[in-house]
Amino acid sequence: MEKYFPQAAFAGRRVHLGVTGSISAYKALDLLRALYKAGLRVSVGLTEAGSRFVSPLSFKTLGAERVYNGMFPAAVARNGGAGELSAGIDLGEGFDPIGHLTPGAWADAFIIYPASATTLARITSGMADEMLAAQALAFPKPLLLAPAMNPRMWQNPATQENCATLRRRGHIILEPEAGRVACNEEGQGKLVDLRIAYLAVLAALSEQDFAGRKLMLTMGPTREQWDGVRFWSNPSTGVMGAAFAVAASLRGAEVHAICGPGCPWLPPAIKRYDILSSREMNAQAQALWPEMDYGIFTAAVADFYPEPFGESKFKKSEAVDGFSISFRPGPDILAGLGRQKAAGQKIVGFAAETSDLQTSVRKKLVAKNADLLVGNLIGVEDSGFAGSQNQVFVADRQGREESWQVMPKAEVAWRVLDWLLRL
Ligand code: C5P
User: Ligand 1, atom 5: nearest CA belongs to which residue?
Assistant: First the structure.
């Protein structure tokens, strides 16, 4: 899973993962794995058809605490299930006679990944004749359903109306994707991307403390073109910005991400603006800012851009003894928006320094009219540019300052957002 997805904030939270009869059931193993690695506790419920595609043993081996498969032990044994691993028999703790109710009492969220047309229909009509549907009907917290099926089955009014009803009842439908499905037909019906399902679970578990707020980010490097093929840039990967974008989105913010070249994947809930140069980034930021509550400026913007040579390629033969290029200053996006800041708008800036970190963080906080500044030293091993971790010094305008240990960028983002809400 992507290194900028949050983990620590969700350790110990509990999820029930339902799996139904679809060829895409094998992808549920990856979802279990991702949740497990993030420290979440997971139980699994397989329909009888689901267990024909993937064995309960696979889920148990990959970290599921309990695996339910069928209402009665005998029913599963008859179906050739995996013996004592099936039928709601809890490995080590014995058969759970109220297995249809246990996830509702134990888990904080329930996702069915993939959800077949039958399971959607069962839940819509309240049919509790099967363990997984019964568990869904008895589940009082967020229920997410990720349909996967043949495109004609998906388009059928029965399925569409079931999904509309489920949505109306407050359940979350993770729309299937378009493409070539397992039966080789083209259309909508593919199980939603694993990353989207994973983040949807985390969102369901997150306090929506940024709900109703609009947040803008700049992220990644900028690319300042010189001739037809050459440009001036830096090694920023956009991972720090992506960590902020995802964290704020999970916490309910409307997120607008202005992305330099090479920025990582972002979930579709985030509005993404792909740009190349600092001037394009500035124009997009200027256009968005008046509507925003927060601006987070993680981009490593080129401070200068070369005087352009033009559209064609500069020829080596034209400068056999070398040559010079002159540079012009580009816009300081953060400083410009800091000057235009309206009451209530809050700005977070970044400073990547090679020395005197704390002094320059304090200076930039004031010079750029930021509310919070996050600084890191360049050159610390596995910290800063391109890595998945960061060691930062954070300061705000009220004079509060903290130095944090090396930690994943996703955690830095989560904590800075906590701080931002307290300002
Ligand atoms: O001045 P300096 O580049 O050190 O400031 C870093 C902060 O300012 C970062 O938050 C960066 O995204 C932002 N910045 C900007 N436009 C620039 C240069 C930096 O928005 N041209």
Answer: 351
Q: How do residues 236-265 score in pLDDT, each as one tens digit?
A: 999 999 999 999 999 999 999 999 999 999
| R_g (Cα) of the chain, nearest Å | 25
Whether ligand 1 lies within 6 angstroms of the CB of 218 is answered as yes
How far is ligand 1, taken at its centre, from the CA of residue 258, in Å?
A: 14
Q: Provide the whole-model pTM.
A: 0.92
The verdict on 147 and 282 lying in the same domain is: no
Q: Are residues 309 and 188 in the same domain?
A: no
- Out of 156, 179, 205, pick the residue that ends a domain: 205
CB 44 within 8 A of CB 108: no
pLDDT in tens, 268-327: 999 999 999 999 999 999 999 999 999 999 999 999 999 999 999 999 999 999 999 999
C-alpha–C-alpha distance, residues 337 and 289, integer Å:
8
Q: Is residue 279 classed as helix, strand or coil in its secondary structure?
A: helix
> What's the CATH code of the domain at 276?
3.40.50.10300
Q: Does residue 223 share a domain with residue 200?
A: no
Q: Is the CB of 297 under 6 A from ligand 1?
A: yes
